User: Which sequence fits this backbone?
């Protein structure tokens, strides 16, 4: 099912939660809505689900305008963060309930599924989810992962056209989260329906999504595949938000045709970067580079043209498993440097690092990336 | 062209709408016009009343006339025909008859006589004495709603006899007077039809308006919210029809002249009713009573509630047990509680258990002060569980760490309460307390069931009847409505009350909004603002005193000496001017003046009957003192004329000297201990008992003297305090030789026991060589762990023999009870000075108060002298030890259980004996119970109650659970406002909407029907039910019903399948709460149910004893029925208390809407 939103806006009094969102979600894709908390991602999801009514704008399922349609007539499934299983029903009854709820007719409604069909489907789903032994348990007797699986199974069972996930993994512990993540991806491959997944965790988004929509303060910042978002961030916010480590930024300004970094230290930027600056005639701006792509200067290898070399003081060294995270001080600016070398670094010692020109992004004063 | 046309159209539209508006105004004004307006032609002759089938004419006889009779004709306009109604003949041989009703009355001078009817074959004539000055005739035989005119003819007639029949022949006649045309009223039946129609129509209009507004709002809201409007519609409609409409109707009625007795339609009279009320001398009296009542009760409630909650929260073990004990009275319906207190204190007019026990002579029908204070006590006792719960809720919200911290820092108890606990619970408690004020202000049950306004006050008489010392606004309104059937005036009274309630409600709303569950620092109001308020108040007081001095208006001044008024007015005036002219405050002087005024006002309160001359300045003074206490002295330079300064220094020196003396005494004083308190209490109680038993029994006075001496001495020496144990046997001797009534014996022996136990604790270290088995036992008892249980056991064991010994003697004592409190007894005590005034009616409270006052004064002085207050603090600490706390709680428990035991005893004893003569009834019978079922058929009333309660609870829960779902899940337009509105409506139930509610029910023919009363009670519980169910639904995760909705279920199915099963507990509890409220409901059932076959249990039980002045209360039946009602309620309560308490505790704040 293709889902389209046109100028979707939601206001709570004065506060604008979502501002003119135009989105096109292709059929059977896995779309992840990503954003920091308060960015309006859950609002967007609930608008699509029909749990909220938009202040302005329209929503289309396929070609139908379903903005006015109440939630119970949209035939969509939603998995919530706190896996809301009905506490007064057993696992089996929880799975039966959505099938019993499928009814047709105007006034005197009739069930669509017969008892036998329901029974067969429930058994099938139980097997699929590997929860046969919990059939007669109540939700309070299940563990978190089991609850989440039953919750997903309950949505799965009635074959909806659209799946919505509202941070379904954030209440589960880390190890199980990884497992469930894989399972959800497998599930998408298996049933091949459109899925919309909301998360604030960028690694989850990178792992799951075909398309990622990055929201900030109610507006779409960038839409694209995970690689696109990682490699070609549209602006500073995207570059900062995507990635395991915060991106390093150094601000510069132009003085007498020379690029000068902070506290008036002249710096030799690689030619390609300087070209970008001069092409866009930037007076001031920032350069950014990812912590993962920083290397230590190897004195044995020659210095190349497209290298940026920075001399820093090591402030702090943090060892995480096989990685070392170094916090460096470059002219009172903080630079994070991640390396996998076994070499021991000493605090307060100087270190020379290099960044290749192709991994340097240039941002203008407003934070927009320039090429 | 086009624009011209549209303009024309617009003008036409405007014209049309103008026409419509004017037309409707004219129509409405026509509706409200008086539809009869007849004035007499002749000066002396007038139509004084027009009814449905009659008209009353009043005329003066012409002084010199040749005619000796009147013919009365009426002219029927519809038939265009004249009829002769009757003749009135002046006769010289007139016997004065004592018939009580006649169509024709006449008066000579100020006296009214009744004419004699005489039947002749063509006319019926009325014979009137020749000397008659005015004649009043009631012309009957008219048709309702038709036009007539009446004419009087002077006639000369002769009476001819024809074979035993008399015939009247007219000899000459001349027209004397003719009235204008008038229309007779609707007949009573038609009238009923008419008002039924009117009520139905107005209800219909209300419904249409409501639906229209509702539809309009729903239409404008977003589409997804529409279902919410469907959910809240039934409950809101019920509330609008049965709560909002009565309030509006009540306000309308207050502007009409409408009496149910006469059976007419309401006629608009503007502010006549209010003017009438303002002229009524009873209003200030009732207002005074209500104010004094409210203030006394609120203060007592807050203090007692806080102390109890504090003790239960921090001071005792087995918290839950005490909690349960405290709540047992709450489970008993208030009408049974109140009536049982009446049994206990008043009984059959001063023959009661209380009077027998203590040898007193209480009579709630004759002693105003005593009755007022007892009524207050009962009201406080009735509501103490509730207020304690509120305080407990507040206290338990204080983090335990804060309390622990205070303990670690060794902050004293008093400081902790003042500086830590009170500020923390204040924001939580304050809204609840204002709710309590609203409730107390409109309280009805105690004043109606316990005293019914009695004792009557001689100066409380007006044309509306006599009012009594405990007549509150609510009971007075009820009296006007229920007995006088004067709807207009009663409605005006309840409108005034509603306005006052509205004021408190607004305060409450403001407070509940502004406060949060955590402490928020507030900005203090600027001093200058307060200062200007004070100046205004001073001017007002000055004017009040001037008015009081000049016109003798007694409610704002000193009554007994007009010159004092002028002096005080002058003082206030100068102070106000000082405040303006000299910018600096003259606070200290002002304080002295306020104190002086307060003392004068309080003196008036006690020396005159407060109902007669109550100085309302008391409240203003207290307010001013409060404001003054907020102004910091150090900030204001103190500049006064030197004269005042000198006076001040002199006064200061004197105070210093007194203080020095006190310091010297204080240095010799020993540390106070609980034993001191016990001995003091013993002394006080001996003093009281000495009053009640015959004053010339020298033994008691002797013991009293010894105790006083020992008490004084014991303040200086510990040894004397310890040797006070020797006094205990002396006290016991006193019991034996002086026939002290039972109650005193019990109290005094309790105190004596407490003393021995306390003394044993002190001795236990010093006299270890006396380590005998008895001391071991005492040690064992004194261990705090077993203390409370053992203490109760010992008490019971000690009490049992008393019943055997003194029980027999009781019957003798009963007859010997002297009339202690008659003023004669006090003449020798030195109070005769006060009884010179006519208004003074001394009762026991005066000497008692003076004694207590002086005692408090002594302690206060000691405390004043004690600069570091360590001794008092130590004493407080000692008293607050767990052991002593237990004693305190046990005492409260005993007081609680005493009237209940009385009821229990009465139920199982024979006949209507009221005063127990032994612990268990001598020959326990079930006679009362059997006659309940056989003779009284109480099971039918039981079924009535069950039906009504089940019906209203079902209706209420059904309506509410739908609405609660909508309120819990949707944010639709006006949600907050509607919620607040619903909770505000809760305050306006009871006596405030009773009158219009009754009328609506009456007009709709729902009086005395099950349906009507079910409707009445179901809407009354909607706010509470809404609160409980909504709160519970809020705790059900929203995602549950959202996911169920996404599965394709409609909202109704979600509600049925998911929400209702999950909200089961809340719904069950709400059902039970609603059920209990109807089951215990008194007022509405009392008014709405009229035939005994439909009475509910409360009404049935009330009919057994009736109100206080009833002549033949059947105590036995009442007691037995009460027990039958109470036992199932107690069982329900004990098992479900947690749920029930959570229900009513949460209903008092709206912060979380």
Assistant:
């Amino acid at each position: 099912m293709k889902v389209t939103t046109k100028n979707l806006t939601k206001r709570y009094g004065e506060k604008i939660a979502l501002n003119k969102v135009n989105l096109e979600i292709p059929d059977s894709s896995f779309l992840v809505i990503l954003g920091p908390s308060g960015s309006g991602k859950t609002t967007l999801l609930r608008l699509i689900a029909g749990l909220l009514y938009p202040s302005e704008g329209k929503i289309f399922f396929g070609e139908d305008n379903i903005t006015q349609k109440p939630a119970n007539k949209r035939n969509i499934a939603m998995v919530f963060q706190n896996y809301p299983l009905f506490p007064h029903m057993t696992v089996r009854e929880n799975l039966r309930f959505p099938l019993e709820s499928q009814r047709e007719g105007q006034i005197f409604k009739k069930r669509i599924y017969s008892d036998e069909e329901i029974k067969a489907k429930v058994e099938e789903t139980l097997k699929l989810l590997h929860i046969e032994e919990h059939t007669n348990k109540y939700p309070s007797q299940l563990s978190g992962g089991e609850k989440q699986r039953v919750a997903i199974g309950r949505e799965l069972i009635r074959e909806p056209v659209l799946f919505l996930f509202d941070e379904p993994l954030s209440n589960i512990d880390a190890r199980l989260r990884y497992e469930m993540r894989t399972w959800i991806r497998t599930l998408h491959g298996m049933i091949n329906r459109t899925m919309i997944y909301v998360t604030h965790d960028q690694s989850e988004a990178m792992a799951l999504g075909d398309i990622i929509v990055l929201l900030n303060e109610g507006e779409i910042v960038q839409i694209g595949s995970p690689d696109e978002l990682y490699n070609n961030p549209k602006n500073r916010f995207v570059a900062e938000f995507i990635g395991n480590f915060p991106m390093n930024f150094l601000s510069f300004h132009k003085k007498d045709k020379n690029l000068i970094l902070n506290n008036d230290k002249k710096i030799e930027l690689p030619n390609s970067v300087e070209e970008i600056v001069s092409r866009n005639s930037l007076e001031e701006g920032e350069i950014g580079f990812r912590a993962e792509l920083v290397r230590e200067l190897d004195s044995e290898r020659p210095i190349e043209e497209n290298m940026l070399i920075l001399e820093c003081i090591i402030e702090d060294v943090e060892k995480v498993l096989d990685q070392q995270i170094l916090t460096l001080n470059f002219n009172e600016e903080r630079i994070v440097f991640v390396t996998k070398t076994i070499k021991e670094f000493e605090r307060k010692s100087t270190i020379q690092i290099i960044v290749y020109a192709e991994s340097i992004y240039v941002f203008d004063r407003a934070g927009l990336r320039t090429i | 062209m086009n624009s011209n046309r549209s303009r024309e159209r617009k003008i036409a539209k405007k014209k049309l709408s103008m026409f419509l508006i004017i037309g409707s105004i004219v129509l409405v004004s026509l509706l409200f016009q008086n539809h009869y307006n007849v004035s007499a032609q002749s000066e002396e002759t007038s139509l004084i009343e027009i009814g449905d089938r009659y008209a009353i004419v009043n005329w003066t006889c012409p002084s010199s006339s040749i005619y000796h009779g009147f013919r009365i004709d009426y002219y029927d306009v519809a038939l265009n025909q004249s009829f002769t109604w009757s003749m009135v003949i002046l006769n010289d041989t007139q016997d004065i008859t004592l018939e009580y009703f006649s169509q024709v009355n006449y008066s000579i001078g100020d006296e009214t006589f009744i004419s004699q009817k005489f039947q002749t074959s063509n006319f019926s004539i009325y014979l009137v004495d020749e000397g008659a000055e005015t004649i009043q005739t009631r012309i009957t035989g008219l048709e309702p709603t038709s036009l007539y005119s009446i004419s009087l003819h002077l006639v000369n007639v002769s009476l001819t006899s024809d074979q035993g029949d008399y015939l009247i022949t007219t000899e000459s006649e001349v027209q004397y007077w003719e009235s204008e045309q008038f229309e007779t009223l609707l007949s009573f039946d038609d009238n009923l039809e008419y008002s039924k129609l009117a009520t139905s129509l107005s209800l219909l209009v209300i419904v249409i308006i409501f639906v229209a507004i509702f539809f309009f709002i729903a239409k404008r809201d977003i589409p997804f919210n529409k279902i919410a409007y469907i959910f809240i519609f039934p409950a809101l409609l019920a509330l609008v029809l049965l709560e909002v409409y009565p309030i509006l109707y009540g306000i309308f009625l207050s502007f009409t002249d409408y009496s149910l007795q006469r059976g007419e339609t309401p006629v608009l009279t503007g502010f006549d009713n209010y003017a009438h009320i303002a002229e009524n001398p009873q209003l200030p009296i009732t207002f005074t009573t209500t104010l004094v009542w409210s203030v006394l009760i609120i203060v007592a409630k807050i203090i007692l509630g806080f102390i109890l909650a504090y003790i239960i929260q921090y001071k005792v073990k087995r918290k839950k047990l005490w909690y349960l004990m405290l709540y047992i009275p709450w489970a008993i319906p208030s009408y049974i509680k109140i009536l049982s207190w009446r049994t206990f204190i008043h009984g059959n007019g001063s023959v009661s258990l209380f009077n027998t026990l203590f040898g007193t002579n209480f009579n709630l029908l004759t002693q105003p002060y005593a009755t007022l204070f007892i009524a207050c006590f009962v009201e406080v006792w009735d509501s103490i569980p509730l207020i304690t719960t509120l305080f407990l809720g507040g206290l338990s919200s204080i983090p335990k760490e804060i309390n622990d911290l205070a303990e670690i820092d060794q902050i004293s108890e008093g400081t902790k309460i003042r500086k830590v606990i009170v500020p923390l619970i204040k924001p939580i408690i304050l809204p609840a307390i204002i709710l309590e004020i609203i409730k107390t202000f409109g309280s009805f049950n105690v004043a109606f069931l316990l005293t019914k306004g009695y004792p009557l006050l001689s100066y409380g008489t007006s044309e509306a009847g006599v009012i009594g010392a405990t007549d509150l606004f609510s009971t007075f309104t009820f009296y006007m409505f229920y007995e006088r059937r004067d709807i207009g005036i009663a409605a005006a009274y309840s409108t005034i009350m509603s306005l006052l309630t509205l004021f408190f409600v607004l305060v409450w709303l403001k407070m509940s909004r502004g406060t949060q569950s955590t402490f928020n620092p507030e900005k203090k109001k600027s001093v200058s603002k307060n200062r200007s308020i004070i100046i205004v108040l001073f001017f007002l007081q000055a004017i009040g005193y001037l008015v009081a001095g000049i016109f003798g208006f007694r409610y704002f001044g000193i009554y007994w000496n007009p010159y004092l008024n002028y002096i005080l007015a002058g003082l206030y005036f100068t102070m106000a001017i000082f405040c303006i002219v000299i910018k600096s405050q003259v606070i200290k002087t002002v304080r002295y003046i306020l104190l002086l005024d307060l003392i004068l006002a309080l003196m008036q309160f006690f020396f005159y009957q407060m109902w007669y001359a109550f100085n309302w300045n008391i409240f203003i003074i207290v307010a001013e003192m409060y404001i003054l206490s907020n102004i910091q002295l150090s900030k204001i330079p103190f500049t006064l004329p030197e004269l005042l300064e000198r006076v001040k220094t002199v006064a200061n020196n004197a105070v210093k000297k007194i203080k020095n003396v006190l310091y010297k005494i204080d240095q010799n004083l020993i540390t106070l201990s609980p034993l001191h308190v016990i001995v003091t209490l013993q002394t006080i109680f001996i003093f009281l008992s000495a009053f009640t038993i015959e004053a010339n029994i020298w033994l008691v006075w002797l013991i009293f003297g010894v105790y006083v001496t020992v008490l004084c001495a014991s303040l200086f020496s510990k040894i004397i305090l310890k040797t006070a144990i020797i006094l205990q046997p002396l006290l016991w001797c006193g019991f034996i030789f002086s026939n002290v009534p039972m109650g005193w014996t019990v109290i005094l022996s309790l105190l004596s026991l407490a003393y021995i136990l306390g003394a044993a604790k002190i001795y236990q270290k010093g006299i270890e060589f006396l380590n005998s088995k008895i001391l071991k036992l005492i040690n064992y008892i004194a261990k705090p762990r077993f203390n409370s249980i053992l203490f109760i056991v010992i008490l019971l064991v000690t009490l049992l023999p008393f019943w055997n010994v003194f029980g027999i003697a009781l019957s003798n004592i009963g007859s010997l009870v002297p009339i202690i409190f008659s003023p004669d007894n006090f003449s020798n005590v030195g109070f005769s000075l006060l009884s010179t005034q006519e208004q003074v009616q001394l009762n026991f409270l005066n000497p008692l108060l003076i004694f207590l006052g002086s005692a408090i004064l002594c302690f206060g002085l000691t405390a004043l002298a004690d600069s570091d207050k360590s001794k008092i603090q130590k004493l407080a600490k000692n008293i607050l030890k767990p052991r002593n706390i237990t004693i305190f709680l046990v005492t409260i428990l005993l007081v609680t259980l005493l009237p209940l035991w009385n009821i229990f005893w009465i139920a199982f004893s024979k006949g209507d004996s009221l005063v127990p003569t032994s612990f268990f009834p001598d020959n326990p019978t079930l006679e009362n119970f059997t006659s309940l079922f056989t003779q009284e058929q109480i099971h039918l009333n039981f079924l009535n109650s069950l039906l009504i309660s089940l019906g209203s609870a079902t209706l209420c829960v059904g309506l509410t659970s739908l609405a609660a779902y909508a309120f819990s899940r949707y944010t639709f337009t006006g949600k907050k406002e509607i919620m607040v509105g619903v909770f505000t409506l809760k305050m306006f139930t009871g006596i405030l909407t009773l009158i219009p509610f009754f009328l609506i029910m009456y007009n709709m023919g729902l009086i005395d029907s099950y349906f009507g009363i079910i409707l009445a009670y179901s809407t009354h519980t909607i706010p509470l039910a809404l609160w409980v169910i909504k709160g519970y639904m809020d705790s059900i995760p929203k995602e549950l019903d959202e996911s169920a909705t996404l599965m394709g279920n409609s909202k109704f199915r979600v509600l049925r399948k998911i929400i209702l099963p999950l909200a089961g507990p809340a719904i069950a509890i709400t059902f039970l709460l609603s059920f209990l409220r109807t089951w215990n409901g008194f007022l509405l059932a009392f008014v709405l149910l009229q035939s005994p076959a439909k009475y509910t249990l409360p009404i049935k039980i009330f009919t057994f004893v009736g109100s206080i002045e009833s002549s033949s209360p059947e105590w036995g039946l009442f007691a037995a029925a009460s027990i039958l009602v109470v036992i199932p309620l107690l069982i329900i309560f004990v098992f479900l208390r947690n749920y029930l308490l959570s229900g009513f505790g949460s209903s008092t704040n709206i912060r979380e809407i």
Remarks:
- The CA atoms of residues 301 and 380 of chain B lie 6 Å apart.
